[in-house]
Amino acid sequence: MRIPRLLVVALVLVVAVALQVGLFPHLSLAGVVPDLVLVVVVAVALVRGPESGAATGLVAGLLLDAAPPADHTLGRWALALVVVGWLAGSVRQDARRSLPASAVLVAACAFVGTSIFALSGLALGDPGVSVAAVLLVVPVAVAYDVAVGLLVLRPLTRLLDGLEPRRRGLPTLAGAR
Amino acid sequence: MPPSPREPDGRRSPRVLVLLLLTALAVLSLDAGLGPGAVSDPVRRAAGTVLGPAEGGASGLLAPVRAIGDLTTGRGTLRERNAALEAENARLRDQLGRADVDRNRLAEYDGLAASTSDGGLQTVQARVVGLGGAQSFSRTATIDKGTDDGVGRDMTVLSADGLVGRVLRATASHATVLLLVDKGSTVGGRLGSDNELGFLRGDGSLAGAGRLTLTTVDSQVAPDVGDSVVSWGSPGAVPYVAGVPVGRVEKVSSSPRQQTRSITVAPYVDFSSLDVVGVVVGNAATTTSQAQGE
């Protein structure tokens, strides 16, 4: 059971990275694209818990750091998404109960994720990161991520739930209705 | 700690979190500490080999949507005519932009006119398949040509409108381009009207067309609004070939406190709608002169 699940998560991550870099720039708001990869990490964390969430966050972040055309210091998205995965996994019992709760969770994760990425850039002296740019980008990213999260979080958690070997009364988004 | 019955796999040992955080921090400090490219270049090349084609596929997803739009609204012919007109417009603007420079050059050193890049450039056409979002705080793009087509590091990238940027790294099939508007991009520029030299830096705007700031070598230079700026050219045409139109002076402001002027240049290329670009893989003039020198 474990190998297929890892394969599916890896495949979903690669598709998410490709969409985020290849397709979403055509749909950007003020240059900001939806963080689909972040939403995938949140979905894995909701289904599998904080440890798996953080581990998925590390892999997803490294993919995002290495995928062209990225040119920042490697490890910045990895750091941000490890925290996001842990955070989402830790509050999953509450966040999976209702749609508004998961929207709040995606908003919190988007805020934390993009902020950690931006702050690491400030700390490392990345020339493109300025406080003004951060204040502009982070709110737009949070709003866009919530919109995309509401669309894809439920199908993603369902897909991942289906890969679980046994399901013992886990509260699901579908069960909340 | 045994897992609770309600959470089959929901363990949350802080040790794991610390371990994962340390891994991320280790990658971060390795890449930051070993200098630019030492770690990231091989990693990014490997990732680009796999993810480049995937991005190309994702980017192609919109093509059918565009095609349907053309069919239903009958814009196909209009689009073609528009493309032809845009190309002609770009060519004319290009000529206009070079006119001043070329005249000055001819007057100053007649013989060197032959070595202006006009016509001597060999380019490879490529399409932009990936762009970094504003969250990445940089302006870079992925193009669908790589070392298999002769594209390599530090080559000039241009479009029909003007200079786009330079190649940062290339895999066999794809390459990453640093756009002029990125905050970390600097290119030498020559003012069309009086041949003055300066440096154009990206303003780091994360969306839209973007602007460049020009710092002239001679701080007394006062360009007029509307002056055209062409690339100065690097030694050996790496990374930037000479004489490519870059933009037009949009605003000149000087403060009495500082002795310098701040000059804003609007690039000819619209960086928010990049599609087809050309990579300069060879320059007839340079290759000949190098061949003669050897």
Helix content of chain A: over 70%
Provide the structure class of chain B: alpha+beta
- Helix fraction of chain B by DSSP (H/I, runs of at least 4): 25-40%
Give the integer mean of the pLDDT values of chain A: 87
Instruction: Spell the H/E element sequence of chain B.
Output: HHHHEEEEEEEEEEEEH
Tally of extended strands of chain A? 0
Biggest interface and residues each:
A-B, 73 and 71 residues
Low-pLDDT segments of chain B? 1-8, 108-117, 285-294
Any overview of this molecule?
The complex is a heterodimer of chains A (177) and B (294). With 177 residues, chain A is mainly α. In chain A, 73% of the residues lie in helices and 0% in strands. The longest helix of chain A is centred in the last third of the chain and has 32 residues, at 131-162. Chain A is globular. Chain B folds into two domains: 14-60, no CATH class; 61-283, Thrombin, subunit H (Beta Barrel), CATH 2.40.10. Chain B contains five helices and twelve strands. Chain B has helices spanning 14-33, 40-60, 62-73, 76-108, 284-293, and strands spanning 121-131, 140-143, 156-158, 163-170, 175-179, 186-191, 197-202, 212-216, 228-231, 245-254, 261-267, 276-283. Chain B has a six-stranded antiparallel barrel. A six-stranded antiparallel beta barrel of chain B has the order 6-7-8-11-10-9. The relative contact order of chain B is 0.14. The model of chain B is unreliable at 1-8, 108-117 and 285-294 (pLDDT under 50).
Q: Secondary structure elements and their pairing?
A:
The complex is a heterodimer of chains A (about 180) and B (about 290).
Chain A: H1 2-23, H2 36-48, H3 50-66, H4 76-90, H5 92-95, H6 99-124, H7 131-162
Helix pairs in contact in A: 1-2, 1-3, 2-3, 2-4, 2-7, 3-4, 4-6, 6-7
Chain B: H1 14-33, H2 40-60, H3 62-73, H4 76-108, E1 121-131, E2 140-143, E3 156-158, E4 163-170, E5 175-179, E6 186-191, E7 197-202, E8 212-216, E9 228-231, E10 245-254, E11 261-267, E12 276-283, H5 284-293
Antiparallel strand pairs in B: 1-2, 1-12, 2-5, 3-4, 3-12, 4-5, 6-7, 6-9, 7-8, 8-11, 9-10, 10-11
